[in-house]
Amino acid sequence: TICLAILAGHFQGDVKFYFAEGRIVTYLSTLLLILIASHCTAIFREVIKTAPFSSGAIWVFLVSAFCFAAIDEFFMIHENLDFAIHRWTGLKETAVSDRLDDIVVLFYALFGAAALFLGRRNLVRFVTVRRLVASGFALAFMMIGLDILTNRRDIATDIDLHSWLSVAEDTLKVAAETLFLIAVRRCWIIVKS
Asked: Which pLDDT score is estimated for 98?
């Protein structure tokens, strides 16, 4: 899908065309997030069959977090946050304030990582997916760095470089989500066995 989006964009004269908000890569990302949330729901249901509800609390958090992420992705909530802040506060848009939405995504990722760390006691049986999750977070943090870099063309000023970095940003996002999906799929297999 990513390669086809790049190729189709190239033939339209803009490699990042299908990577823009509200286009095919947004829908792919939303689908991946929904699949992750649905796997977390299935895992939660299996976990609480044999353990107290509190053992499944981390899975409830993950369901909520990935559902929220899917809604945010589809409706572009965080992308519009900096516009809303400028409108509500009357602040003049600057290079820093224009990147507030990117910082929000950073906090999402940090909050998710902290929740997994705090809930690690209930995740011991899933230790085999730790590398997948860590790799997913590594890609997510690289994606956030590129998002901050490409938010506007004030750092990466060359148009071609900016376009390719934008494509790389969304490619990293989809790759991170894919790793998270593989991880929760493996967790589901573990609870079913």
From this structure: 87
